[in-house]
Amino acid sequence: MERRRFLVLLALPLLQKALAAPRSLRVGVEACPYCFMTILDARHAAQAVNPQGRAFFYDDPACLLDQLSGWGGPELKAQEVYLADFLESTRTQALWVEAEKALLYHNPKVRTPMGSGLLAFRSRENLERHLKERPERRGGRVLSWREALEEGKKRPWVPMDFFPPPKP
Asked: What is the chain's pLDDT, residue by residue, as a tens digit (168 residues)?
């Protein structure tokens, strides 16, 4: 009995990872917990799942990055993080990719819900295909999720004109 309990406790983290999966987004219903905007375009969406299994949806990856970096919103401990692949998603349906496996493309000229200029892609091929279809968006830079988090510790991704600093 003791050995079985030990094996179950040992396997629990692996089981949680195996059961991890993105939740479905209800476009036009879900609201971003960082900026409170209703999510109207699934191509820009992001998702975080806390350790209790509750999913939080974001209208722009920048909102999630800023909340995880402590720039505002309620404290969030994310156990799972997903980003919508901009190329393969539609306005009403997100095709989720684990944030750690995604590529972020940053170009301030690209219009996004919060003005961050961040787009997420499942692969370099998807990013290159998008830039081939939309050559006016060239000239940005490619980041990993970890690089975006590190950069987010130094400055918020959501432009300050969206959320001006509080007055003293």
From this structure: 566 665 445 544 544 444 567 888 999 999 999 999 999 999 999 999 999 999 999 999 999 999 999 988 778 899 999 999 999 999 999 999 999 999 999 999 999 999 999 999 999 999 999 999 999 999 999 999 999 999 999 999 998 776 655 555
**144 burial level (CB within 10 Å; 0-12, 13-18, 19+):** middle
- Torsion of the alpha carbons at 149, 46, 142 and 165, rounded to the nearest 10: -50
Angstrom distances, CA of residue 156 to CA of 94, 108, 120: 25, 14, 17
- The reported pTM is 0.83
> And the tokens for 73?
């919103």
